[in-house]
Amino acid sequence: MGLQELCRLMSRFNSYKRTHIILQHLKMSNHTDAAAEVLLERKGCAGVITLNRPRFLNTLTLGMIRQIYPQLKKWEQDPETFLIIIKGAGEKAFCAGGDIRAISEARSTNQKVLQDFFREEYILNNAIDSCQKPYIALIHGITMGGGVGVSVHGQFRVATEKSVFAMPETAIGLFPDVGGGYFLPRLQGKLGYFLALTGFRLKGRDVYTAGIATHFVDFEKLGMLEEDLLALKSPSKENIADVLETYHAKSKIDQDKPFILEEHMDKINSWFSANTVEQIVDNLQQDGSSFALEQLKVINKVSPTSLKITLRQLMEGSSKTLPEVLTMEYRLSQTCVF
Q1: Which residue among the candidates 44, 98, 179, 317 is catalytic per the annotation?
Q2: In angstroms, rounded to a whole number, what is the distance separating the alpha carbons of residues 52 and 36?
Q3: Annotated Gene Ontology MF terms (predicted)?
Q4: For 283-335, what is each residue's pLDDT tens digit?
C-alpha cells in the first residue's frame, strides 16, 4: 500500500470518527434535552414541577407526561411532601398546550404514539383532580389546551396580569379536551360554551374573574409567593390557602377593571343556550351587534365538524363526572386524529 493511499484511508477513518463523535454528541444532546424537558424537585415542604421548554412555550410531550405522572403519585404518598407546585420556565408561558408538531408527525409515522399521548395525558389530568395533596398551578403567561389540563383540575390556580387563557381547539379541527367537557360547562352561565366554540382569549385578572384561576397575584410577587409556600412547616390545606389569600388580597392590578365580557354576558347566555350550532349562528345573525358579528366571523372560520362535536361534548359533559368526561374525550380524540 502506497503512502498516498494510506493517507487517504486515514483521512476517511478520521472523517468517519468525527462523524461518529458528532452523532454521539447529538444523541447525548437530544437525551439531555429530553431529560430536562421537565424538572421534578423536592424543595422545602413541596414537590415542584417545572415545565422546562421555554423555547417551545413549555408545550407538553409524551415524555414529559411520563415523567410527571409517576412522580406526582410518589409525592402524593410521601408524608414529607405537603403540597405540589407546577409552573412553567421563562416568562412567556405556563404551557401553551400539547406539542402539536410531535402529534402531527406521529399521525403519519406512529399511530400508537397518538393513542398513548392522549390516554396518558388524560390519566394525568384525572390524577391531578384526585390528588390528595394541595396542588398549586402558577399559570403565568400563555395557558392553553394541555396547559389548562395540568392546571385547572388542581385545587389552586394562580393567575397574574400576564396570564392568557384559551381553548382554541376548534380552529385546528379538534375540540377542547383535557377535561374541557367537564370544567367549561360549569363556568358561570354559558361562558364556557362561548369560550369553547370561539376560542376567545381571557387575559390577566379576567382569568380569575371567569373562574379559571382561584387567585390573582402580581407577577413580580410570584417568586416571593413560591418561597413563602416552600417555607411552610408541615402546612395544612388551610395554611396554604391563607398564604395564597394574603397575596391575592394585596394585589391591586386591574382590581377595579370590569370583566371584559361583563356587558355581553346576558347576550352570551342567551345566544349559547341553543341546542344546535345552527341555532347559535342564527342567534348571532339576528342580534346583528358588532360583538355578535365578531363572534359569528370567528365561528364561520373554524371547523364546522369541530363546532358540532364541541357543543355536544359540553352538553353531555355538564352532567358527567370528570373520569366519565375524560373517557368520552379519549374516544373522541381517536376519532378526530385518525
Answers
A1: 98
A2: 7
A3: 3-hydroxyisobutyryl-CoA hydrolase activity
A4: 999 999 999 999 999 999 999 999 999 999 999 999 999 999 999 999 999 99
